[in-house]
Write the structure tokens for this entry.
Amino acid sequence: MDDIEMLHAVRPQPDPPSHAACTAARAALLERAGSPSPTARRRTPWRRARWILIPAVAAAIAAALVIVPGRVGDSRPPVMSARDVLLVAADTAERTPEGAGTYWHITITNEAAETEEYWYRRDGHFWIKGKGLKGEGKLLEWPMKPQPFAVGPLRMTFEELRSLPADDKALYTRLWSAVPGSGVRPSGGPITAAEQDGLAMEALISLISEAPVSPQVRAAAYQALAARPGVIDLGETDGGRRLQVPVALGKGTMVVDPDTGRIRETSVWAPLTGGMAYDLDGMRTIRAEWTDQLPSG
């Protein structure tokens, strides 16, 4: 069985938040800065500053004190739920410039530091490089004809990706509606409602972590994910916040960094060669960005 056959063997609503709801959630986070919990003492890189000055000394300090945003001691209000995490990440993603280049470069690294790399060109040609892939670590154009982009269980051309709606509710509806036509059947029989929802969730994760979509569509994917039931906050971790998400085969785990609007690590992802991949015992680190360079073979 080759790579494509293996990766194609997929193992096995409340309304999404409105723009007003997202704005309200962020406002609530900022308001919380003025009344911190006594236990919220641990600082993380993605919290803004809170300064409490005794009135008697405030005037004396004001003449000499310069507060520089982003320095040690800055503190964004504590994020208390998975929904908060995702809505803050959506806000960050929407304001982050997309970048430019000839190739969309995806790097996937496991905990043993083994790396798979993919370069996708807008016309559907893509290249792969990795010891576990065809070519045994050498750069290889695979296959030798244009291919769509893997978005969870779905396959989309670059033009289809760029035409996805930037409204969270419309985006989720588009993905959910496309799942039955994908041919993916996790249980082998007719697709169930739970499987359809789980596969649509996988498509959202792919849009957030891997696909070359606009900042507005990435933000909408975060907002749609925030509206889905079953997303659970597992607490702080290196690089962001660990969340549990329902997927077609049960539960996946991902680490969201609200500072960058990106997924740092995930246990479920969509290789460009097709299908969905699951790492039930570990996590994969994903980086995705535009570049103008292909490496030497």
About this structure: The chain is about 30% helix and 20% strand. Confidence is low (pLDDT under 50) at residues 1-14, 32-74. Residues 193-209 form the longest helix (17 residues). The first strand starts at residue 103 and ends at 109.
